[in-house]
Design goal:
This is Fe2OG dioxygenase domain-containing protein. This protein is α+β, with helices and mostly antiparallel strands. It has helices at about 10-20, 20-25, 70-80, 95-100, 135-145, 150-170, 180-185, 260-265, 305-310, 320-330; strands at about 50-55, 85-90, 110-115, 130-135, 190-195, 210, 220-225, 230, 245-250, 255-260, 275-280, 285-295, 300, 320. The strands form 3 sheets. The protein has a 7-stranded antiparallel beta sheet with strand order 2-10-7-12-5-4-3. Strands 1-9-8-11-6 form a 5-stranded mixed beta sheet, with no helix packed on it.
Length: about 350
């Protein structure tokens, strides 16, 4: 039974989270105002009017290994060490989605959820998602939702090829000889999400996703033409932005967005910066984004590469990635606070 939107928080929380109807199910009830559990504190709201738009053009990866390889490689390295984020060239029924909700999914490879960690958040995020873990092609085609399994698998495999090429370039640019062992250690665990951000009656009060960095190595993001993705500038960049500013990353037709994640910041000993980012909601059209996350296997130990420690000293200590994941998911989104778990002085 659908709750009245004027009822107490528990009724609405159960409907959206426990029963699996998600934000879309709530919006379908006919919202005219934002329910209290979704109203963000003032400091977390996204000021679209005063935000800058990223002026940087996409990097053309097709020019790698050609005459312009060195220039393109330098652009990639510079983007990863400053912004951590740069462009490179879910609408199904509540009943079907709820089948895959946490604790009820028939497959350990598929999970439907809403927000990030609803039980721990001061204010909920305006997002529903389906997450599909990759083990091998056979299990993906057997267990992923039939509505999207073939195209999702193709997108994931193509994205992983690109990630491996990018990691080779990034390692070379910090004086580390790339090899399959190092790259496999960073990308052994892969999953693809389908994120759905329904229309919101007042985007000024909500967020689609709160401030955070991804925990893995590199994330490949396909976003639609709606916009709403914002990244925090890590350090002053001439003609781009000042440290601490938020910039919108506008959709570019035919381009993908690459996020540097925490694992790459750790193994690069802080040379590359994970991208702190967030997502704004919209009132006119629902937004869809599809990220592919590449990260170490949970049992993998990650720490700064020895070549970099010898040169610069260790800025992070070695951690088992499962421990890092547990810490990451034990708290609501809070910028890049998760990185403190692996910092050398902790």
């Amino acid at each position: 039974m659908a709750p009245s939107l004027d009822e107490g928080n528990n009724s609405l929380f159960n409907f959206v989270v426990q029963d699996g109807y998600g934000v879309k199910g709530m919006v379908d009830l006919g919202l005219t105002k934002v329910p209290k559990p979704y109203i963000q504190p003032e400091q977390e709201r996204i000021d679209k009017q005063n935000a800058r738009t990223c002026p940087l053009q996409p990097i053309d990866l097709s020019k790698l290994n050609g005459p312009e390889h060195d220039r393109v490689a330098e652009e990639i390295s510079r983007a990863a060490s400053t912004l951590g984020h740069r462009p490179f060239v879910l609408r199904t029924s509540a009943e079907k989605k709820a089948v895959y909700r946490k604790g009820a999914s028939p497959s350990p490879l598929v999970k439907y959820g809403t927000s990030f960690v609803p039980d721990k958040e001061e204010a909920l995020e305006w997002k529903d998602y389906i997450s599909m873990t990759y083990t091998n092609d056979v299990e993906a085609l057997q267990q992923w939702p039939k509505e999207c399994k073939e195209v999702s698998l193709e997108y994931l495999k193509t994205s992983v090829e690109m990630v491996r090429k990018l990691l080779e370039v990034l390692m070379e640019n910090i004086g580390v000889k790339p090899d399959n062992t190092k790259i496999d250690a960073l990308t052994g665990f892969k999953l693809v999400n389908m994120n759905y951000y329904p229309t919101c009656p007042d985007p000024n009060l909500t967020v689609g996703v709160g401030r955070h960095s991804d925990m893995g190595a590199l994330t490949v993001l396909l976003q639609d033409g709606i916009g709403g993705l914002y990244v925090k500038v890590e350090e002053d960049i001439e003609d781009v932005g000042k440290k601490g500013e938020w910039m919108e990353i506008p959709p570019v037709d035919g381009a993908l967005v690459i996020n540097v994640g925490d694992a790459l910041q750790i193994i690069s000993n802080g040379t590359y910066k994970s991208a702190e980012h967030r997502v704004r909601t919209t009132s006119t059209k629902s937004r869809v984004s599809i990220p592919v996350f590449t990260m170490p296997n949970p049992t993998e130990k990650i720490g700064p590469l020895p070549e970099l420690v010898k040169r610069d000293g260790a800025r992070f200590h070695e951690v088992v990635f499962q421990d890092y994941m547990n810490n990451f998911f034990s708290n609501a989104h809070d910028g890049k606070k998760s990185l403190q778990f692996a910092q050398a002085n902790n």
